[in-house]
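Dear Dr. L.,

I hope this message finds you well. Following up on our conversation about the binding site, I have prepared a predicted three-dimensional model of the protein together with 2,6-di-O-phosphono-beta-D-fructofuranose. For your records, I am including the exact sequence and ligand specification that went into the calculation, followed by the structure tokens. Please feel free to forward this to your student if that is useful.
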Amino acid sequence: MTSLAQWLAAETNDQNLAGVIASMAAAGAEIAAVLREAPIEGQTGLAGATNVQGEAQKALDVISNDIVLNHLRANPAVSILVSEELDEAVELSSQGTVIVATDPLDGSSNLDVNVTVGTIFSVLPIQDGLLQKGTAQLAAGYVAYGPATSLVVRIAGATSAFTLAADGEWLLTIAAAKVPEASGEFAINTARERFWDEATRGYVSESVAGETGPAGKRYNMRWVGSMVADIHRILMRGGIFLYPLDSETISKGGRLRLLYEANPMAWLMEGAGGRSTTGRESILDVEPTDIHQRVPVILGSADEVARLEKWYARS
Ligand code: FDP
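The resulting structure of the complex is given below.
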């Protein structure tokens, strides 16, 4: 089977970029090992809680951030780290050529119930500074800590998936993920319906109406509430993920973060033939104004994204 190192050698001549992806993969493997034993170690609680031995615990998202930081600090190609866990960007190597933006442990509200969570990352060139559009990404990926630990990564070509083997090696298990154009599955937190805009209401009611409604087919709904898990399912079998702008999140610009959630997921989705939008424009074209900026996020099968875009064009 093809290893991550072999794939990277075939995918890019940029040794720095390959090395940074390898560092994120190594951080992911280390986080996977921590998560695997977290309930035994009493580590699923919040920071400040104590374990059975009465020792103070760090939250797993803080531990994950430290693991990513240590791996990237050891890699001289990384100039700056932006992390969901850190208010400010951290300067690492002065010779570095890339910026890494990461959510070290996304979906953390699912940690204490042993549901899939993930590490998301985006790699940007250093020369244009922290606030670059998603189109500038050199690579993006995520690690999904599920029944198997998966690394999904894209440089400029296809979106590929690796599985962490027992010996710690990442092995290529999907060379080129393909998101089916059409799908009958949507993912949204329907408990927020009262906050939705007209386009989201229209799209969801059309879907729920099923084969007798205007969409003309039956839909199913899935919502893990852990972005990596929901996006991984959609990358593997199609569907649409929505965290739209709604009346409650409008003042913040949305719920999910542009630099280390929306942009990398949009990069991966588009590499697999899917689409991404805020409802008004491609996520990858959003001009960032802040490293922790939030945006509306709609990602998935091309036909479903297009149907939603029609609703936005009308509203
Ligand atoms: P979490 O707060 O648990 O880290 O990144 C935010 C996120 O999870 C996403 O992973 C997930 O898709 C979303 O929030 C869940 O939102 P809801 O609480 O509205 O379901």
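In brief: Residues 15 and 95 are 14 Å apart (CA to CA).

With kind regards,
A. P.
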